[in-house]
Write a structure and sequence with these properties.
disordered C terminus, alpha/beta, 2-enoyl-CoA Hydratase, Chain A, domain 1, two-stranded antiparallel ribbon, about 425 residues, nine-stranded mixed sheet
């Protein structure tokens, strides 16, 4: 039998509800049913709960400690590398290997697989009295390399000090004599005065069509700034051992006695200059009067230099290299053409970056402002700088900034 069930709708009140659990003191009900009461201050306003700052301070302190230890570690590493580099350089200096490590070879032409070498040795910029400079290192490395069959001396210089020019010529002649190899000179934009002086080592001298050369003469640049010193209120009171000790001083006019002494120095060095030319150019040894007519300090174009027998031929670096190979009696396939580049050590990187091919540097500036006897073409200084800037920009355009001396059809020549 079926039981009659009343047809009434179900409501919330008709559904049995679970009995609520009692909330005990100091107990925390489920978060679904509990919202913590707000914190209240003594004045009755709501305030946030206090935050603990212990963790933040500990993290900051840890970061400071890590930073300090990091700085100490970096300093220790740099110091270790520095001391190690100093030790290596000192060992190389004692063993004589430092010279080899500071000059690197770069193949710029010829047969790269050949054993024989033709070296393009460069004298670039102002010639200074630097016995341990890059030019001297190039010469000594060439002298010690038995695979070098000939040398092309690339001169790109307006000259410099008499002592520096004479020393470079001495080293070049010594290398040529001991190795018994031919030397052909290739003149660049300018090879004047001291640049022409060092060219006298060449068996043959080539100059480009636009080369400026000559400027056979000697100069001592002396200045009188005594009137300027008076205007600014500066007085010089030197303590000297003799009346001529202040010769060449800026602070006083030159006396006639001092002028005569300086003129004797100039004349003596000028005679030396002409003697070097007569040793390098046989024609002038037999006709010194012809040289006297040319040795007025005048600069000459390449065509004028050929006509006056100051140089042999007009040609580019390629022509000078080929002629050097002929004089050495070696076939084109039996040699590669190399150029020396400075090779910087870790010490150079840490302490200084040397730029041996720049026209001016701190040493050159000191040399040029010191009263000395110079073999220099004043016009060549400004010309050399202008042409160098043009060539640098051209090289950066064609070679993406890689400065190199090219043999062949590379389009840019330094």
């Amino acid at each position: 039998m079926s039981e009659n069930i009343p047809d009434t709708p179900l409501t919330d009140s008709s559904i049995p509800q679970p009995h609520p659990q009692p909330v005990l003191p100091h107990s925390r009900p489920s978060t679904a049913y509990y919202t913590p009461p707000p914190y209240q201050a003594h004045n009755g306003q709501q305030t946030p709960p206090p935050r603990s700052s212990g963790c933040g301070r500990a993290a900051l302190f840890g970061l400071i400690i890590l930073f300090i230890f990091g700085v100490i570690g970096v300093c220790t590493l740099v110091g270790t590398i520095f001391l190690f580099t100093v030790g290596i350089d000192a060992f190389d200096e004692i063993s004589g290997e430092k010279e080899e490590k500071t000059v690197a070879e770069k193949v710029i032409g010829g047969n790269r697989k050949a054993d024989g070498k033709i070296v393009v040795l460069t004298i670039d910029g102002l010639i200074t009295s630097d016995a341990d400079g890059f030019v001297s290192k190039q010469i000594r490395k060439t002298q010690s390399d038995s695979s070098v069959k000939a040398v092309v001396l690339r001169v790109e210089s307006p000259g410099g000090t008499m002592a520096g020019s004479d020393y470079y010529l001495y080293l070049l002649k010594k290398m040529k004599s001991e190795r018994k190899i031919p030397v052909v000179v290739s003149m660049g934009t300018i090879a004047a005065s001291g640049g022409y002086y060092v060219s006298m080592v060449g068996d043959e001298i080539y100059a480009e069509p636009s080369t400026i050369t000559g400027s056979i003469g000697v100069i001592a640049s002396l200045y009188d700034a005594s009137e300027l010193f008076k205007m600014v209120g500066v007085a010089s009171t030197p303590i000297v051992s003799g009346p001529l000790k202040t010769m060449g001083s800026l602070s006083k006019p030159m006396s006639e006695e001092e002028r005569g002494i300086w003129q004797n120095l100039i004349d003596d060095n000028f005679d030396r200059f002409k003697q070097v030319i007569m040793e390098g150019r046989e024609r002038f040894a037999n006709n010194p009067e012809e040289l006297d007519k040319l040795a007025t300090g005048q600069v000459y174009t390449a065509n004028e230099a050929v006509a006056n027998h100051l140089i042999d031929k007009i040609g580019y670096l390629d022509d000078a290299v080929k002629q050097a190979g002929k004089l050495a009696r070696i076939d084109d396939r039996d040699y590669k053409v190399i150029q020396y580049k400075p090779k910087f050590s870790m010490m150079d990187v840490l302490l200084e970056v040397r730029t041996p091919n720049k026209l001016f540097n701190a040493k050159a500036l000191f040399e040029i402002t010191t009263p000395k006897v110079y073999l220099i073409c004043p016009y060549g200084l400004s010309l050399r700088q202008e042409v160098a800037e043009i060539r640098t920009k051209t090289a950066e355009f064609f070679l993406n900034g890689e400065k190199t001396l090219c043999i062949g059809n590379c389009g840019v020549d330094f």
